[in-house]
Amino acid sequence: MIRVGLHGGFGEKGRTSVGIEAGGRRVLLDAGIKVGASGRDYYPLIDDEAIRKLDALLISHAHEDHVGALSWLLSRGFRGRIFMTAETLAESPETLSHYGEREYLDAFPLDPGAVEMFTPGETIDLGGMTITTGRSGHVAGGVWFAAEAEGRRIVYSADVVPDSNVFVMDPLPRCDLLILDASYGADPVSGSERVSAIRQWIEAHAGGCLLPTPLSGRSLELMAILPGRFAMHAGMRAALEAQLAAPDMLLPGTAALLRQRLAQAEDWHEDEALPSCPLLTNDGMGRAGPSAIAIPLAAAAENYPILLTGHLPEGTPAHTLHAQGRAEWIRLPTHPTLSGLIGIWERSDKPPVLGHSCAPGALDELRPYLPGLRTDLVTGDFIDLKDD
């Protein structure tokens, strides 16, 4: 029997975490935090005894809702193996510095020497369980995981983008259970339509506007959209250059185009006036990083519009400004829209499916399109795959 633990991200957005117990092994796939929550709800719902028994932790990518609980996990007694790609390892310390709680970061910092690195496409043999990996299309170094044990295969997509304009996504394999990125529910608007709308908005505000964005993933997607002159926070440059140094993660021809645009981008620092062109600052929610400074500056300016393009957790500056009508929002798809979800499910042989990173109501709307979708399970539940 294979037991799957839904430790975070089910019936909610954030603290994404999936446990798999089979073949005498216990692994955890991702350990994220939930922006906007506090106390125990900030972290995955897994008890200390189960944490101490884990053999391995595999991190799909370095966004806060997938890696932000790493130091907390170490503080609860985790001493298993840690697996990441080189890109994820390089980006995780900054994510942890913004979203990890200081008491855990100080006592249990991430030790790069303790991390076992793998390349997307490799298979990790844990003895009794193997984990196959593939490129996610979400960020440079981002992956999905396919766990095989006892003759069964469980696929956890993490965050995937089947129609990215920048990153490559490898097809998910056939499986007995698909844990799928359902962040957008049944959103029918295609990525190309959203990209066109964002480009038109930027063109209409080319004299100066703010585009808050995560440092990895969406920053490159926005750079591919930008129609002309633009600026970015100077601290973003090195990280973006590192992402572009992984050409196998990018669509053909994309790296050269983005390197050119990065070279032409103007640097902006917090002590300078807002530039007279589109400005990228990292952290899409305004809670951390340069965006925490740039968003209040833009909001106070007489004519410096703000465009938000991602998730808006309640209580974040981005959510507050949008609710007040001071910031506009157009989703830039960095997760699957409806057609992408259907395509992934069909190519996976239409298995039973769970949706992560999605509110219950949105899952209900998605169910008619994915007949195998279960909507009755939430964070804290378990599902067993029993022998036939």
UniProtKB/TrEMBL annotation:
<protein>
    <submittedName>
        <fullName>MBL fold metallo-hydrolase</fullName>
    </submittedName>
</protein>
<dbReference type="InterPro" id="IPR036866">
    <property type="entry name" value="RibonucZ/Hydroxyglut_hydro"/>
</dbReference>
<feature type="domain" description="Metallo-beta-lactamase">
    <location>
        <begin position="14"/>
        <end position="199"/>
    </location>
</feature>
<dbReference type="InterPro" id="IPR050698">
    <property type="entry name" value="MBL"/>
</dbReference>
<dbReference type="InterPro" id="IPR001279">
    <property type="entry name" value="Metallo-B-lactamas"/>
</dbReference>
<dbReference type="Pfam" id="PF12706">
    <property type="entry name" value="Lactamase_B_2"/>
</dbReference>
